[in-house]
Design goal:
The structure is a single chain. This protein is an all-alpha fold. Among the domains are: 52 residues; 164 residues, no CATH class. The chain has 23 helices and six strands. It has a two-stranded antiparallel sheet. It has a two-stranded antiparallel sheet with strand order 3-4. Strand 5 and strand 6 form a beta hairpin. Helix 14 packs antiparallel against helix 15. The longest helix is centred in the N-terminal third of the chain and has 34 residues. It is globular and about 70 Å long.
Length: 613
């Protein structure tokens, strides 16, 4: 049997039939294009050729509200005569369209109707496109396949959203449209505005993806001789190696890993991450050595996009969305843990902004998809291969729910509670494949030696410096640990330079109303949760929660308490993005009544943009 860690096994030679596969892709794309071209003939409504089109219609805004002059009062002798006929209601755009539609239906028997595209034909087209995309991805070398996946996701999302907001053209008869109708002009104006907004979103997400790929360019190198460093990287990621090798050689993924000491479960294992598609699929496509590196790059990009989604849920503008995404991409806690080989610990942090965004949208909107987003993102966090960050995320979710518990009337509170319960039930259901066996067999697998006291007792001044300095010496009672030394990676929490904090919170304090315009009216709820989480996680990471570790015995499983600083750094990034966005809104061009301060605001806005760049 070949060695699963053999680089030659992980980087097979290109197959000779690649040109045949590309030719098949071209044929399938051409077939799908032909089917779509044939079905596009049904989009316009037609009438028989022998029907004379009516005169051009003059359409005004609907409904027409112009009042007619009141009729004169009839004389006394006419009181007992039949009442006059009721006035004819004014025509509307809907009545004009419906009358034209009735005329078309009454004459449609004069010639056969055009063939319509069937439901099965649509699925045939979709199947051809899926096969073509999968074949193209399988034959595209890394890292170009990752760029292709990102481009396809962005294009598909933009197309799907555009289908919902772009109105179809209104055609009454052959050659007759409504180009001058005010209601049509309003719809088209809204459509153009929406398209520009979607284009802006696409540019922002593309910039985030490029930044994430640039940060992780060393991981995207197609060199099978290089792997992620770290003394424990091999055994931590061994489940992905074995599952990918078994799938290639035997055609299935076994439930048991016999090569680990006396054997262990392969799927029902808290350390295994093969149930997470973002962590495991690259290993299936490119092998364990190269796949793990690609997965690390994908999770970093995913963290950046999650920051963008979180900023969007907070109502932030372009500056806030892009700034939060960039801060989460460069956050030291995630990159530092991956650098030392703790792939699961670093990758699991990528799903925290997704969970928070889903929670906010679940509580503040009535849509259904935020419930699914919350459940799926937390399940992916649970399937990331390490359970450490599930507890801080649960605390975060609880504080957010508590901060919004008394918002609105009783009906809104009841509806919000029902949505949260449904999201929790869906999350537990999705996580049950690992949650149930891990909970029943926790003493045999997934269990660690308990933490003594509250963890390593570190100096608070050094802990605060880790948020603004990448290289810090952590002083403890018996030793000093450097953040770039052995075990120092758990204290890497760098998120922003200190000058940015001084600028946003001291030199330009948010207490001044002219320097802060929040995106949400009740933004204080987010600020309160953020400040509490930063204080709590800072004390946790400094080893100051010894009393809780004594009172709650299961909490002792959360060892190496310095990892909690990564959660505090996440919240610091969120508050910085909110503060910068509020300052940017305050420095917008002043209204006409405040033109005196417009020049100063413009200068401050330019200075802020230059400093952030």
């Amino acid at each position: 049997m070949n060695n699963p860690f053999n680089p030659q096994h992980e980087d097979p030679q290109p197959r000779q039939d690649r040109w045949l596969v590309l030719a098949a892709i071209g044929i399938m794309v051409m077939a799908a294009a032909i089917e779509l071209w044939r079905s596009s003939k049904n989009r316009l409504l037609r009438v028989p050729q022998n029907v004379t089109p009516p005169a051009p219609l003059t359409v005004v805004d609907a409904p027409i509200t112009q009042q007619r002059p009141a009729a004169p009062m009839p004389p006394q002798s006419q009181f007992f005569q039949p009442p006059p006929a009721a006035p004819v209601p004014p025509p509307t755009l809907g009545s004009l369209l419906s009358s034209s539609e009735d005329a078309r239906k009454s004459k449609q028997t004069e010639r056969p109707a055009l063939p319509t595209i069937k439901f099965s034909d649509r699925w045939f087209i979709y199947l051809l496109m899926v096969i073509a995309v999968v074949a193209l991805l399988l034959n595209t070398p890394a890292p170009y396949s990752i760029y292709l996946i990102v481009a396809l996701i962005i294009a598909a999302s933009a197309w799907a959203i555009g289908q919902r907001v772009t109105p179809e053209g209104v055609v009454i008869e052959d050659g007759l449209t409504l180009p001058d109708a005010p209601i049509v002009r309003k719809v088209r104006t809204f459509s153009r505005t929406r398209i520009l907004t979607l284009a802006l979103y696409a540019v922002e997400i593309a910039a985030i993806c490029v930044a994430g790929a640039w940060v992780t360019e060393n991981y995207l190198r197609n060199n099978p001789q290089e792997r992620i460093t770290g003394g424990e990287e091999e055994w931590i990621t061994s489940s992905s190696y074995f599952a990918a090798k078994a799938l290639h050689e035997y055609g299935y993924i076994p439930l048991w890993d016999p090569f680990w000491e006396y054997g262990r479960p392969l799927i029902e294992n808290p350390v295994s991450f093969i149930t997470n598609p973002f962590s495991f699929i690259p290993s299936v496509l490119y092998g364990g050595t190269q796949g793990i590196k690609i997965s690390a790059a994908v999770t970093v990009i995913l963290a950046g996009i999650g920051g963008w989604v979180l900023a969007y849920s907070l109502g932030l503008g372009t500056l806030g969305r892009v700034l939060l995404a960039m801060l989460l991409i460069g956050k030291g806690g995630m990159i530092g843990m991956m650098r030392e080989g703790y792939f699961q610990l670093g990758g699991s942090q990528a799903y925290i902004p997704w969970v928070m965004a889903g929670m906010l949208l679940t509580m503040r909107t009535r849509s259904r998809w935020p419930i699914v987003l919350t459940a799926v993102s937390f399940t992916l966090l649970f399937f990331a291969g390490n359970l450490w960050f599930t507890l801080p995320t649960l605390i975060l979710m609880g504080l957010l729910a508590l901060s919004h518990a008394f918002m609105g009337d009783n009906t809104e509170r009841r509806a919000r509670l029902q949505r949260l319960i449904f999201a929790g039930v869906l999350t537990v259901t999705l996580s049950m494949v690992v949650l149930l066996p891990a909970g029943l067999n926790f003493n045999r697998i997934g269990n660690h030696p308990e933490e003594n006291g509250g963890g390593w007792y570190a100096d608070m001044g050094d802990i605060f410096r880790t948020y603004t300095e990448p290289l810090v010496d952590i002083h403890m009672p018996n030793e000093t640990i450097s953040t770039w030394g052995f075990f120092g990676h758990i204290y890497i929490a760098y998120v922003t330079p200190v000058w940015l904090v001084i600028l946003l919170f001291l030199l330009l304090p948010p207490a001044l109303r002219m320097l802060y315009r929040p995106a949400l009216r009740d933004e204080w709820r987010i600020w309160a949760v953020g400040i509490i989480m930063i204080a709590f996680c800072t004390l946790w990471g400094a080893g100051r929660l010894g009393l809780l570790y004594e009172i709650i015995p299961p909490l002792r499983q959360w060892r190496f308490v310095g990892r909690a600083l990564a959660v505090a750094a996440f919240w610091i990034a969120v508050l910085i993005a909110m503060r910068a966005d509020g300052l940017w809104r305050a420095l917008l061009p002043a209204p006409s009544g405040e033109k005196v301060t417009a020049g100063g605001r413009f200068a401050l806005r330019g200075a802020l943009a230059l400093g952030l760049a």
